[in-house]
Design goal:
Radius of gyration: 21 Å
Shape: globular
Strand content: under 5%
Structural class: mainly alpha
Mean pLDDT: 80
CATH architecture of the largest domain: Up-down Bundle
Number of helices: 16
Largest sheet: none
Distance between the termini: 11 Å
CATH superfamily of the largest domain: MFS general substrate transporter like domains
């Protein structure tokens, strides 16, 4: 009876942890993903040109990834609360200051360093590691899926909100309103403030010094294979997010179809993230990752061979949405399996940086290939080859079969 009472007493805390982590990711990721919506107004106001403004946004892609291993290492040592507090505040500050910037350097500071860096500090590596420390081990797979879905929901929610605020307040008022809305995530820093050790991972290896932990990881073949696969994931995701509207135009379809396709990706990404969070506790995570990458490559191949109609494009967007960020829960899970949760935030942050390098190349190469050939076909071919390589590279990873959880009496 006492055991049952303790379980019931801990249940609200478990859900509060998930709500805090997923809500924070929704607000920071959603705000960050709406920045492209303001690219044209910023260009009109500053006259800098899209190339100069895009440089600030591209720098933000890399900086978001680079901050995560360092933020993760700090969170591993002192707990996630202080890191999240600083990260959320920087996202709000950078977003609020952006309308005042009239030079490329100023935009790099506001968008590329403050806002993107803050989003990295309050990003998936810190949030998922904090959640993994504060909930029972058997629920961690589902938890990473829920947190990941929170980012997708924020992306889906904040874009129409930004459009509505722009229509009523103008683009400057809209950006500054979004900056204030991000501050709603500050209470989550208190909920997720737990330190590097909790009762749920007493059997996990103790946290190592950051340099020692990273050196150990870089000598681990499975970790390197996992990073290579996540590099491919970043290439896929950034290419689609950046160039899908251009793909729609190249297919001769109306421009609104591109917006619908991006919305479909966001919606189905929520489904894929939750489904993968459920699956990681039941099947080998390396096999799930191979399946996801193989499905992406097959979907791209079918899309290339199909007539380019609105229905085909939306179905393609739905399939890609299911696989869009569903790689995150098993990737986090494998890092935790390899090294425990003591250094999880920093080590997953390093994998996320590999993801962002791939993302930078996917976004940049898409534009370069289209300028050179007038088509995206060669990027799709590269996409298929990379997907096949990622599907194969996960197979040699040594992973034990998931333990079957006994049902509680």
């Amino acid at each position: 009876m006492a055991s049952n009472e303790r379980t019931r007493g801990s249940s609200p805390i478990w859900w509060l942890v998930l709500l805090a982590a997923a809500g924070t990711f929704a607000l920071t990721m959603g705000t960050r993903q709406t920045m492209g919506f303001f690219l044209s107004p910023i260009n009109t106001a500053t006259g800098l040109g899209l190339g100069s403004i895009s440089l600030a946004f591209a720098f933000g892609q890399l900086w978001w990834g680079l901050t995560q291993p360092f933020a993760g290492a700090f969170a591993d040592r002192v707990g996630a609360g202080r890191v999240l507090l600083l990260g959320v505040s920087l996202v709000a500050l950078g977003t609020f200051l952006t309308p005042f910037m009239t030079s490329t350097l100023g935009l790099i500071l506001a968008v590329g360093i403050l806002a993107a860096g803050g989003a990295g500090m309050a990003g998936p590596s810190v949030l998922m590691a904090a959640s993994s420390r504060l909930i029972p081990p058997e629920r961690r797979g589902l938890a990473t899926g829920v947190v990941n879905a929170g980012g997708s929901f924020g992306q889906f929610l904040m874009a129409p909100l930004a459009a509505a605020l722009t229509a009523s307040l103008g683009w400057v008022g809209a950006m500054q309103s979004l900056a204030l809305i991000v501050l709603l995530a500050l209470p989550a820093a208190w909920v997720l403030r737990g330190g590097p050790v909790s009762g749920h991972q007493s059997m996990s290896p103790a946290a190592l010094p950051a340099r020692e932990a990273l050196g150990k990881a870089l000598r681990h073949p499975g970790y390197l294979m996992l990073s290579a696969g996540f590099f491919v994931c970043g290439f896929h995701v950034a290419f689609l997010a950046t160039h899908l509207p251009g793909v729609v135009a190249a297919c001769g379809l109306p421009a609104p179809v591109g917006a619908w396709a991006l919305g479909v990706i966001g919606l189905f990404n929520i489904v894929g993230s939750l489904a993968m969070g459920w699956a990681v506790g039941r099947w080998r995570m390396k096999s799930l990752l191979s399946l996801v990458y193989a499905a992406r490559g097959l979907a791209v191949l079918v899309f290339l061979l199909s007539p380019k109609t609105e229905a085909v494009l939306l179905v393609f967007a739905a399939v890609m949405g299911l696989t869009f960020l569903s790689t995150v829960p098993p990737t986090v899970g494998l890092v935790g399996k390899f090294f425990g949760v003591g250094n999880l935030a920093m080590l997953f942050g390093a994998v996320m940086f590999a993801h962002q390098i791939g993302g930078f190349l996917g976004a940049w190469l898409g534009g370069k290939v289209f300028d050179a050939t007038g088509s995206y076909d060669w990027v799709w071919y590269i996409d298929i080859v990379l997907a096949a390589g990622a599907a194969l590279v996960h197979l040699p990873i040594k992973e034990s079969a998931p333990a079957r959880q006994a049902q509680p009496a």
